[in-house]
Design goal:
The complex is a heterodimer.
Chain A: H1 2-29, E1 30-33, E2 40-44, E3 51-55, E4 71-74, H2 77-80, H3 90-98, E5 102-104, H4 112-126, E6 130-135, H5 137-140, E7 151-155, E8 158-162, H6 171-182, H7 184-199, H8 227-237, E9 242-246, H9 256-268, E10 271-274, H10 279-284, E11 290-291, E12 297-302, H11 304-324
Helix pairs in contact in A: 3-11, 4-8, 6-7
Chain B: H1 6-20, H2 25-44, H3 48-67, H4 71-106, H5 124-139, H6 149-157, H7 170-173, H8 185-218, H9 225-257, H10 274-280, H11 283-294, H12 304-322, H13 326-348, H14 356-375, H15 379-389, H16 402-422, H17 428-432, E1 434-439, E2 443-448, H18 453-469
Helix pairs in contact in B: 1-2, 2-6, 3-4, 3-5, 3-6, 4-5, 8-9, 8-16, 8-18, 9-14, 9-15, 9-16, 11-12, 12-13, 13-14, 14-15
The chains are: A alpha/beta, B mainly alpha.
Chain lengths: 325, 482
């Protein structure tokens, strides 16, 4: 027994040492401190971009003070923009161009239904003079109708926004959450496990050669989604004082959803910024507004140049809109 | 079933567990045979029959060859074996290629032959070559015919090298049949060390740089010259780390079970001539082509011109072995021409040697440029890529992928360790408690003993690095398609 322990001791010490090194390493490349209701910092330098984000206790991205009443920005990971530093996000750049406080409340995976559900609370607490709502085509179509999160639903012929169902947190999950909050190794270890699970398209154990393409039989064709109604609901939720920031994929041509968004904005005289307006300039220079040197070219989230271009586009639009207010 | 999947780890654990149970030797072979068949069937059960048919044909033909001393009869049975293997390979791999080219010729007549649309059986190029080596070696009386069909089936279906090599010859594998099967502490250490290194090559380098290579080769005309070179460098890294990573994992898996598979790579990118490159790249294929194609064609025994023709023919067929496409033929042709030029140079100036500092980058550049037709989707893609590389295209997109720098750094570090080991030094001995093993079959490799804190630390760092920084979506091994 003693001999076995002596043999095992260097092995265990080596493992512990490696775990310690990785704990320190992961804190430098992917780590978050704080949490909901707390001042928090997110370090992200690994897989897409290299940004350090700071968030106040209300979940607003930290920016230098500026006079109000503020402009509110709601959106998903494109607005949250953890891939770039605080001062590179389009909201921070917009604030420095306009000289008005811009409150960034972007949260990854949020969708238009969230913005409608959260509108009363955001308006009450932040009292915005204007709201920027960022989305892309899938937010208004497939992704906006996923029932596991805030989503749109048709009831009695009316479209309504339904809040995200409350998730039950078990004892094990609570313990794991506490461990994740204290250890980058555990936190990223669990995140990787979830990533492996999400990305593993496990085919049947024995299959007949040709891999069939999996399709969701419940999916509605994209043309059938009530895009115009969703836009009207978003506008109404923020009392019509909104600018839509539509972010289409850089590599794809304009699709039907994008055309419908732009047509509706024009018909209803809504403020709308189509980020595609910047694409030609990027293409001429052989650059891309999305993607990073540590991820992909022209795919993924906005990079610093993309955020700068978005801020300039929004500034042009908002100057006109705010002047006429 | 990919080596880098949870499913494979479960499968491997089950096979190791089953072979660890004390039972008669023959029954363990049966377990391995069944396990290997399941491994293959997991890809496509319909083609399992094909694998078994090949094993039956070659076993039977070899038995007939050995049963007679009559040269004509022996030759007949050898021909039967070779023709059946090549017919199976040709039907599944080259029929549509032939028909597509035939349609090209028939275009003017208005006729068109329908393509067969056959699915390429995984690993068919590897196991047909493996099996053919057996009948040829029996015919040449280099090996005794296998006395047990179970042994031969196990040789053909042995799962570690079944899908993408190394191409194990019967003369290497069959003598190991008497070994006890199953994991031991020593075998697990050897196998695990090789497996982790191979997995690191695949997940930490190949799959990451694949993103760059895939993107650049998908639209070669869109990129600036510098980015096109990044794409080519990425592919050069990817194909090496992907294939040699697979070979390491295959050799490692076989070692866990108690078998030695031959070395398949030996730092090919440090080669200072194309001839040296082929002694270091896909060694089992180049040796197979040398022994079963180049030498029977006459090798270098029939004059200079015939030697050059033999060399060119061998490389052309070697290119075609990789896939049914003129791009692979072009790749083989380029290497064949380079080998002929190298021979001519050596003949013309036997005493003058190009300094290694010049020969190495020239060889590397040539090998990299040859990857262009190998990787490009078609001939137009090859031309577009070459135009982008030499700044003749209109592409402007600029991308400096950081992942390429990381991949390159890891590959250089690996090569530095490899060169040190080749010179008889072992820098890993101190930092990682690693021992260099020189195996007559598997060549030189490191075994991480994990007896010291530093040794356990190093291995844990490797495993954690693969877990945390390895590519999440692993792309299929490149050589699976061949």
């Amino acid at each position: 027994m003693k001999r076995f322990a002596i043999t095992l001791l260097p092995f265990a010490a080596g493992l512990l040492l490696a775990a310690g090194v990785f704990e320190l390493l992961l804190r430098q490349v992917l780590w978050t401190t704080g949490g909901p209701g707390q001042v928090s910092t997110l370090v992200r330098r690994l897989d897409e971009g290299s940004g350090v984000s700071h968030w106040d206790a209300r979940g607003i991205r930290v920016a230098p003070p500026a006079p109000g009443p503020p402009i509110l920005a709601v959106g998903d990971s494109f607005t949250e923009a953890s891939q770039v530093n605080d001062d590179e996000v389009f909201t921070a750049r917009l604030q420095s161009i306009l000289g008005i406080r811009v409150l960034n409340t972007g949260v990854a995976a949020r969708s238009p239904a969230d913005y409608i559900v959260l509108a009363p609370q955001l308006k009450r607490e932040l009292q915005p003079a204007w709201t920027i709502i960022q989305f892309n085509d899938s937010d208004l179509t497939d992704d906006g109708f996923v029932s596991s999160k805030a989503h749109f639903e048709e009831r009695d012929g009316n479209l309504i926004a339904v809040a995200a169902p409350e998730s039950h947190v078990g004892r094990v999950s609570r313990i794991l959450a506490r461990m994740r909050a204290h250890s980058a190794l555990v936190n990223y270890g669990v995140a990787r496990l979830e990533l492996f699970r999400a990305r593993s398209h496990t085919p049947p154990l024995f299959r007949g050669g040709v891999r069939e393409k999996l399709t969701n039989p419940l999916a509605t064709p994209r043309d059938n989604y009530p895009v115009e109604t969703e836009l009207a609901m978003l506008s109404t939720a923020y009392d019509g004082r909104v600018t839509f920031l539509f972010v289409p994929p850089f590599r794809e041509e304009q699709n039907a959803v994008e055309q419908r968004v732009l047509a509706y904005c024009a018909a209803a005289h809504l403020s709308c910024v189509d980020f595609r307006a910047t694409f030609d300039d990027f293409r001429r220079r052989g650059r891309s507004p999305v993607g990073f040197t540590n991820s992909w070219f022209a795919r993924g989230h906005l990079n610093a140049a993309g955020h700068r271009a978005a801020a300039e586009l929004l500034a042009r639009e908002l100057r006109t809109r705010l002047r006429t207010q | 079933m990919s080596f880098v999947s949870i499913r494979f780890f479960v499968f491997l654990a089950a096979i190791l567990g089953a072979t660890a149970i004390p039972m008669p030797h023959r029954r363990k072979k049966l377990v391995l045979c069944i396990g290997s068949s399941l491994f293959y069937a997991a890809w496509d059960y319909r083609y399992l029959a094909l694998l078994l048919i090949i094993s039956v044909i070659d076993y039977w033909c070899a038995a007939r060859i050995a049963a007679t001393r009559e040269p004509r009869v022996r030759r007949c049975w050898l021909t039967a074996s070779i023709v059946s293997n090549l017919a199976i390979l040709g039907w599944f791999k080259y029929a549509d290629f032939f028909l597509t080219n035939l349609n090209g010729l028939l275009r003017f007549t208005g006729h068109e032959v329908a393509l067969l649309g056959l699915l390429l059986p995984a690993g068919i190029s590897f196991y047909t070559f493996k099996s053919m080596s057996y009948t040829i070696d029996v015919y040449r009386e280099r090996i005794e015919p296998c006395s047990s069909h179970l042994d031969y089936t196990m040789f053909v279906t042995f799962f570690p090298d079944l899908i993408a090599g190394p191409i194990v010859r019967a003369s290497v594998f069959l003598p190991q049949m008497t070994r006890a099967i199953g994991p031991t502490r020593e075998r697990m250490l050897h196998g695990f060390s090789l497996f982790v290194i191979g997995m690191g090559k695949k997940l930490l380098i190949a799959d990451h740089v694949a993103v760059v290579a895939n993107d650049v080769f998908a639209t070669p005309a869109a990129w600036s010259s510098a980015t096109a070179w990044c794409g080519l460098l990425a592919y050069s890294l990817q194909i090496y780390c992907d294939f040699s990573g697979y070979s390491d994992m295959a050799i490692g898996t076989a070692k866990m079970l108690g078998y030695d598979l031959p070395e398949n790579f030996n730092m090919p990118y440090i080669a200072a001539s194309v001839a040296e490159f082929w002694h270091r790249w896909h060694i089992t294929l180049s040796e197979w082509l040398r022994d079963y194609l180049y030498i029977p064609l006459g090798g270098n025994r029939k004059g200079q011109l015939r030697t050059d023709v033999n060399l060119l023919l061998t490389m052309l067929l070697g290119g075609l072995w990789h896939g049914a496409s003129w791009n692979f033929v072009a790749w083989g042709l380029l290497h064949g021409i380079a080998l002929i030029v190298h021979r001519a140079w050596r003949r013309a100036a036997p005493r003058s040697r190009v300094p290694r500092a010049l020969a190495w980058p020239l060889t590397l550049l040539f090998v990299m440029l040859c990857w262009v037709p190998f990787r490009a989707i078609d001939f137009d893609g090859t031309i577009a890529m070459l135009r982008s590389l030499f700044g003749l295209g209109d592409g402007r997109n600029v991308w400096w992928p950081v992942v390429l720098a990381w991949g390159l750094a890891l590959a250089i570090a690996g090569h530095a360790i490899g060169i040190a080991l080749a010179r008889g030094r072992n820098p890993m001995a101190i930092i990682a408690d690693a021992e260099v093993i020189t195996d007559p079959i598997s060549g030189r490799y490191l075994v991480f003993r994990m007896r010291t804190v530093a040794g356990a630390f190093f291995v844990a760092v490797m495993v954690l690095a693969i877990y945390f920084f390895g590519a999440v979506e692993s792309s299929p091994f490149i050589y699976f398609q061949f």
